[in-house]
Amino acid sequence: MVVLGFLPCHLSSFHPPTTAESPKSNGLRSTVYASSDLPKRVLIRRRESIVVASSSILAALLPVGPTSNPSFQNAKAEEDEFQRDEERVVQIFQGTSPSVVFIKDIQIVDPRKRTGQIDVDEDENTRVEGTGSGFLWDKTGHIVTNYHVVDKLATDTRGVQRCKVFLIDANGNTFSKEGKLVGSDPAYDLAVLKVDVEGNKLKPAVIGTSRDLRVGQSCFAIGNPYGYEHTLTTGVVSGLGREIPSPNGRAIRGAIQTDAAINAGTGASSGVNFAIPIDTVVRTVPYLIVYGTSVSNRF
Amino acid sequence: MVVLGFLPCHLSSFHPPTTAESPKSNGLRSTVYASSDLPKRVLIRRRESIVVASSSILAALLPVGPTSNPSFQNAKAEEDEFQRDEERVVQIFQGTSPSVVFIKDIQIVDPRKRTGQIDVDEDENTRVEGTGSGFLWDKTGHIVTNYHVVDKLATDTRGVQRCKVFLIDANGNTFSKEGKLVGSDPAYDLAVLKVDVEGNKLKPAVIGTSRDLRVGQSCFAIGNPYGYEHTLTTGVVSGLGREIPSPNGRAIRGAIQTDAAINAGTGASSGVNFAIPIDTVVRTVPYLIVYGTSVSNRF
Amino acid sequence: MVVLGFLPCHLSSFHPPTTAESPKSNGLRSTVYASSDLPKRVLIRRRESIVVASSSILAALLPVGPTSNPSFQNAKAEEDEFQRDEERVVQIFQGTSPSVVFIKDIQIVDPRKRTGQIDVDEDENTRVEGTGSGFLWDKTGHIVTNYHVVDKLATDTRGVQRCKVFLIDANGNTFSKEGKLVGSDPAYDLAVLKVDVEGNKLKPAVIGTSRDLRVGQSCFAIGNPYGYEHTLTTGVVSGLGREIPSPNGRAIRGAIQTDAAINAGTGASSGVNFAIPIDTVVRTVPYLIVYGTSVSNRF
Lengths: 299, 299, 299
Fold this sequence. Notes:
Three copies of one chain form a homotrimer.
Chain A: H1 26-32, E1 50-53, H2 71-74, H3 77-96, E2 100-108, E3 126-136, E4 142-145, H4 151-154, E5 161-168, E6 174-178, E7 180-185, E8 190-194, E9 218-223, E10 231-245, E11 251-258, E12 273-275, H5 278-291
Parallel strand pairs in A: 1-9
Antiparallel strand pairs in A: 2-3, 2-5, 3-4, 4-8, 5-6, 7-8, 9-10, 10-11, 11-12
């Protein structure tokens, strides 16, 4: 089963729900709008594409502006179209992938041997129990992922579970940090981790809205199947308003169906995959960050 | 194994075969041309797209005319192209999906309890034995589907099998009706059901020709995998003139191969899927409607 | 596991490596440049598309020039774009598929009965042990394929293995010839066969470079899954610089990942498939032709 989110416009287009779920505290807001320094123009193109994450969440937007490829100017008009379409997909990937992280579930084999930071290093005293993807939510280091990716950490009573998060810095180099669990909600299959990284190293995902999605729109998924980091697959929105099972057995409503190849761990792509709508993510994440749980459980 | 047909142009482009298979009776013709009130202009665009149905049949055509999305006018030219391509896929789905129906195979558990219409209701006295897809053939309520979708009904000797057909009305609401078996031919994996519905509620599929198809053309499949109604998947025509096995063990010639994700019930998409050419469908269906069997068996 | 290469530009853009691997002999060069009579203009479009072969190799280039379809001129501008994109994919397939061959692994059941050419005929004395794809390297009849496709022939000590190669002549008709093993290197999963065919019957694949590839570019794979000859599937470049296992257990570096549906014999497409970069192919094949082995093993 897949999971995730996605997005295709500027955070400032985020309209807080007018119901009781609306975020109230200023603290919350400043967190949500942390990436408001992103260019505003992406807003007008929010219907162009959506990005669905693979067994994971995900993010992204069509970068604007002329392509840097000089051969474009010379090529004939009818040739340009095909190239430009291709160039857009290339740019979607390049613009979004720095916001996508790779997550490793690590278990400490012998807790008596553990010492501080060494916990997330992979040595003979640790075991990788699973992997997943996530995306950068803000410049303070919050990462959105699926609950099922971190469920062992979320339910760890022995203190032996860790999460190692692989990020990309401004120069395109990969580095890793321990991800601490901030909040989680199995009802939506969502969780938030936090990494201790300087803000200018982080590129939060550009968040859009899932409200205007239509079946047939293009879909771009970035994930880490079998550990192949930053894998891009494409497809279309196959259906909307689907109901899929959540980790706690209840139904997640409003899921987005896509035929973009997403591996659910079986080694085969079924062509029928699901993403949690970004509007659900946007409504839930602030509560996970502040209360550690979603609105419905916070009392 | 997959199956089906599809279409990409107006019914009036249907040229009856000049051989003995040519439909002769006026009744036949009027049935075939029942949807001739569809706009003629779709004809000129018949090569633009084809629609392949998923484990089922299928349908559709590129709607013509300017998009209603006002942001299109303002966006820069080079941005428009990408959006317009996306918009076309959205419109193909919206224009075609009302012609695609969802079919449930129902078995009455205890035939002594059955009473009229109640037969297709799903209660404790019925069992859903399978599902499939089909498309609306005309405004009189004929539905084209695969033989394998209704084979239990076709070979039912105890009178316990029923078909429940889910349609969409003019307002986009789903309703269901019992589908009566009109005719079938396992040699082509085709069958025709009839539902008792007022014509103005029905939107027959726009039928095209498979004669001009070329490998590489775009493919749009609408079906109901795992019961997820009106699922869209896309791909290309992967091959033409393929030979695939029919339910009666003989070969179906001229099948269309596509990489659009179609689930054959195994939970995995093989990337190698097949559709019965619409020309075969168009040649066969009138005989199924009038004689209950195809031309080769009608004597 | 998948395998291969591809290409998207003219052979004359082939820059021999400046290291010790650089081809030295004139014989080699003339072999490599055998298809230099291909139009130079394809060079400028080398970034437009790449072609990845399916469990096999692959080939191809965007044909240039206006489409021959007269309806194009009449259709409205905004309609044209969609059609033209489709037309390009059609032309990529038509231009490339004559360079793609189908290979059958044949074992002679009773070697005492064999007589000359009859060895590759499929009669009661032979058994088809596997199939694969390959592409035409030059007009002298060299064919590039994967080592794993011909490994039985490469390791045959009893003289009972044969390869039957199916090619397409200038008129589009299929014919077959025995393929003799010229060289192979399991470290790169590459092998070269040679068929005895007149040059003017052969259309070598247009070779490009994999150096400039970017994630998100379009991918076209032509292969023969389940014996369905010249099957086209499409997708994008999902990742670059991947490491995949070779038949000899070592790693092949720099592999290209794609979500184009490629069947690895399991009946399911995983959405995570790999191709050997054409630059690796171009560097290796001349050595296989001249020495029967790759540079690292030739001393």
